[in-house]
Amino acid sequence: MLRALVVSVVAIAASPCRPAEPESSGPAGTESPGTAAPGPAAPARDVDAAPSPASFEGRTIAATMSHSGAEWLTRPEREQEEDPATLHRELALQPGQVACDLGAGNGYHSLRMAAAVGPRGRVVASDLQPEMLALLRERVAAAGVTNIEPVLATQQDPGLPRGGCDVILVVDVYHELAQPEAVLAALREALAPRGRLVLVEFRGEDDGVPIKPEHKMTKAQIRRELEPRGFVLVREFDGLPWQHVMMFGRAAKRPSPG
Ligand SMILES: C[S@@+](CC[C@H](N)C(=O)[O-])C[C@H]1O[C@@H](n2cnc3c(N)ncnc32)[C@H](O)[C@@H]1O
């Protein structure tokens, strides 16, 4: 397991792929997401596990965003482009809840979630890259926040508490999961009985959203991937500038194996 983790992380750090920045906002010297050549889209792989698929349900899996581009996650323009205040109003987290942040990165959403659930609640912030979790810890310490628990994920296992998440927030992450089948099964197990899995993805139907195609998803594709795997769509919110918000609960029927 340890070897799998180490190899997996090296593969991500060495990836030439950059996050899908808007054309105007890529940091100097990094690949522009608006160009036609985004670099190889091969996902990071766990060599000790089954090989990761290059595609899932007809969709090309995007490369994992490297921690070396983490400053893009806290760029000032993000407030206008993604309107996190509105997203978190829609999430309506309650004091005392357990809120899970899958692919937490450097904690852009985890910190907001921690404020919403308050000192009686907690945030489980899961990420594949130890370097991202180190950046998250720095930001959490600087903010004086004590209710965020960083967790190191593997490609198959997000490390979330079984049946323990009132909400699992997945922002700009799902399209880059190297093992979506395994992670969806784990997320289903992690949801509390009335818990919600909230996917936030750049709109694949909208050419006006200046993000590389493999980092966007259509609503139809999201449903195609989640509904046969034990999730039921309970609510959608279409009021963000660039992203879909799709909220899923556990379907009563368990998906049949295979
Ligand atoms: C584009 S960043 C988004 C970060 C954060 N959600 C945000 O909105 O600021 C994607 C993050 O997902 C993480 N990630 C990718 N695959 C993952 C997996 N299988 N389990 C946990 N984290 C994963 C990456 O390491 C990266 O930090």
Structural class: alpha/beta
Q: What's the architecture of the domain at 73-250 in CATH terms?
A: 3-Layer(aba) Sandwich
N-to-C span: 24 Å
Tell me about the largest β-sheet. Answer: 8 strands, mixed
Number of helices: 7
CATH class identity of the domain at 73-250: Alpha Beta
Attached small molecules: S-adenosylmethionine
- Strand tally is 10
Tell me, what's the shape?
A: globular
Strand content: 15-25%
Order of H and E elements: HEEHHEHEHEEHEEHEE
Q: What is the CATH superfamily of the domain at 73-250?
A: Vaccinia Virus protein VP39
| CATH topology (fold) name of the domain at 73-250 | Rossmann fold
Radius of gyration equals 17 Å
**Average pLDDT, to the nearest integer?**
84
Low-confidence stretches: 1-48
Detailed description of the structure:
With 258 residues, the chain is an alpha/beta fold. The chain is built from seven helices and ten strands. Strand 6, helix 6 and strand 7 form a beta-alpha-beta unit. Strands 3, 4, 5, 6, 7, 8, 9 and 10 form an eight-stranded mixed beta sheet that branches. A two-stranded antiparallel ribbon has the order 1-2. The chain has a domain of 178 residues: 3-Layer(aba) Sandwich (Rossmann fold). The structure holds S-adenosylmethionine. S-adenosylmethionine binds next to helix 4 and strand 4.
Describe the secondary structure blueprint for this structure.
Elements: H1 2-13, E1 55-56, E2 59-60, H2 78-82, H3 84-91, E3 98-102, H4 108-117, E4 122-127, H5 130-143, E5 148-152, E6 165-171, H6 180-190, E7 191-203, E8 216-217, H7 219-226, E9 231-237, E10 243-250
Parallel strand pairs: 3-4, 3-6, 4-5, 6-7, 7-8
Antiparallel strand pairs: 1-2, 7-10, 9-10
The structure holds S-adenosylmethionine.
The site of S-adenosylmethionine has 24 residues, from helix 4 and strand 4.
